[in-house]
């Protein structure tokens, strides 16, 4: 299977709703408090079965109901009265018999959207290297849910998950480029790659970080027009396909998950897929600096001074702080055409994970209105993030005695903030810009979210763009 084939899993069942013409059995969602009302609405066979089995609708418990003629008449799935986990109802898919199901419980529009998307996301499996059966129960799109849009969101999430889950031996810069090219071709986007001498000249920090690897570094540039005069939205994604730490080598434990260090690129491509599938009236651009931070005679060194595309010089305090270097050149290019909105995704700092844990990406922006939009969209679609400060008082930490900037300030304090401040030096003043420091990994399985690669903050951004421009 090629990487393009693996990425195409995003378009395959079970990430689609059941055929609307297929008969679907009723699935009732109940809490222990609402169970009597649900039971009262059922045919006699269902009510008697609940009484006979002592079913109590405890959270996560499912009961399949008879139809009185030896068949299946429906099911009930229990939810906690104070359920706070997103997509909790999606776990029902694991317990139901094969076939089409419909949610019979009345839901408000946002709850229906969440239940529908959660069901699709729960069906995701990364099956490139082994066969792992997905839930066989399929969901009919609830009334009022935009099935096409929801399937497009699920496909974007699945694309990002596939890319993050693929190990580095099958996803280096070459194949990340292939996956991005395949996405561009599928939606009629233009596609360009800067590499070789042009990269050395125009994007010297990308070139320096990636020059030690077997596969050469490059800058991927995808463009798509949903409207010829639409607002310019540029996404930048960190595409470090594997990070050894460079000459400042990571310990073994720190290297174990570094296949996911291209998670920012996966997020950007996942959001791009959503935007293009939805046909939002934007002029979309996706920039992905993609490298492997490897060790060889050509590796850049601690103490080296690199010149950036912007002309600023950077002293290398630590070769393991390479993500901000490749992003800096890409952000400089992005600002050269003055986008209306610039968002970068990057698995950038362990400091953000220490502060916020694996589930909360850190959001940095100087734009209070943009931060509020992100927060509202994240809450609306259950794709949370948390704003951290671009505290200018820490700018002095970036000083170098021999260059304009140091890429890794000594002391280790405020690491996520100083990384964001470093990036801000390469964003033109006045640009509406947000930096998302993401983890892109689910350490534990949950409804709608299997363990492994994850798109973070992408659904929030898509909701923001849809509400602004949809």
Automatic annotation (TrEMBL):
Residues 318-325 form the Cytosol aminopeptidase domain. GO terms for biological process: proteolysis. The keyword Hydrolase applies. Keywords: Aminopeptidase, Hydrolase, Manganese, Protease. It comes from Rubrimonas cliftonensis. Signal peptide: none annotated. GO terms for molecular function: manganese ion binding; metalloaminopeptidase activity. The keyword Glycosyltransferase does not apply. Pfam families: Peptidase_M17, Peptidase_M17_N_1. This is Leucyl aminopeptidase. One of its GO terms (cellular component) is cytoplasm. It comes from the Bacteria. Belongs to the peptidase M17 family.
